[in-house]
Amino acid sequence: MAAGSSNLRAGLIGLGAMGRHHARVLREVDGVDLVAVADPAGDPHGVAGGLPVLQDVQALIAAGLDTAVVAVPTIYHEAIALALAEAGVHALIEKPVANSGEAGQRIVDAFAAAGLVGAVGHIERFNPALQDLRRRLADGELGEIYQIITRRQGPFPARIADVGVVKDLASHDIDLTAWVAQSPYATISAQVAHRSGRQFEDMVLATGTLANGVIVNHTVNWLSPMKERVTVVTGERGAFVADTASADLTFYANGTVATEWDSIAAFRGVSEGDVIRFALAKREPLRVEHEAFRDAVLGISNDIVTLEEGLATLRVAEAMVESAQSGQSVRLG
């Protein structure tokens, strides 16, 4: 750290659609100073402020950094991450962690060997609705978890060019599902469609099982005129519905009305019960993510999405694509 300042010296590479938000939040978070930015394509959103726009990661590193945020296209993640690891810089890398499982593994190994903190920007995990859901599940409010389904649908984003909907969007659902259930994926099966005339898939339907027996289902696309960001967790006491677009969490309780009709009394099902929508403190997920990364670098806590978790998510995403191509279910791990 710089003499005379206890703040972390942070750099940012990539000043595009996501990078501009990182620049703003890096300037807002306590204990962090944004000291350098880089993007060979310049500064389209005007977020550099008084900082010169550097050309590459080496120029960024030369500014003397403790931490860096990597918000460049996925194909460049590996080279930049390995340069940061070699320079001893902790990194928050936007998701997906890399463009292939092999590249992701090399990033994981480099940061582990250097003893550095590496995090992946799976921002949904820091959404207030999912944070509260995770806490309630940990407290046993749902009892045993049976099923998790997610729906992530909306119009096509012009910002994405180098990956399909599986790695860009479904990776959010893979990460949040494994985290909410506290279990890795065991199997995955998927169907994809190419409807927008691009090289990569723009729709996916996937179903699978987690190692702990929870069954999961994901509906993800870039071709819906309405935006939907929903996670439904069903278990023995009812169902939680988390809407991460509005950051709302609702609980639908199983009713406990006893039946007097003998012929269906033997059927073990549920009935409609009370519905509760929880009042949540709605902090910006990106800010919570940055605070978690800062605290991990300082050794205070470890609430980040680790590189290993980011790699596991990428491997499930790759398995989705593999399953769609082969027509077969893929077993993981």
UniProtKB/TrEMBL annotation:
Keyword terms: NAD
Keyword check for Cell membrane: no
Q: Which Gene3D superfamilies match?
A: Dihydrodipicolinate Reductase, domain 2, NAD(P)-binding Rossmann-like Domain
Q: Listed GO molecular functions?
A: nucleotide binding
Indicate yes or no for the key word NAD: yes
The record's section on InterPro entries has: Gfo/Idh/MocA-like_OxRdtase_N (IPR000683), Gfo/Idh/MocA_Oxidoreductases (IPR051450), GFO_IDH_MocA-like_dom (IPR055170), NAD(P)-bd_dom_sf (IPR036291)
Question: Which residue ranges does the record assign to the GFO/IDH/MocA-like oxidoreductase domain?
Answer: 131-240
Q: Please list the residue ranges annotated as the Gfo/Idh/MocA-like oxidoreductase N-terminal domain.
A: 9-122
In terms of domain of life, where is this protein from? Bacteria
Q: PANTHER family, per this entry?
A: BILIVERDIN REDUCTASE A
The protein's name in its UniProt record: Predicted dehydrogenase
Organism equals Sanguibacter gelidistatuariae
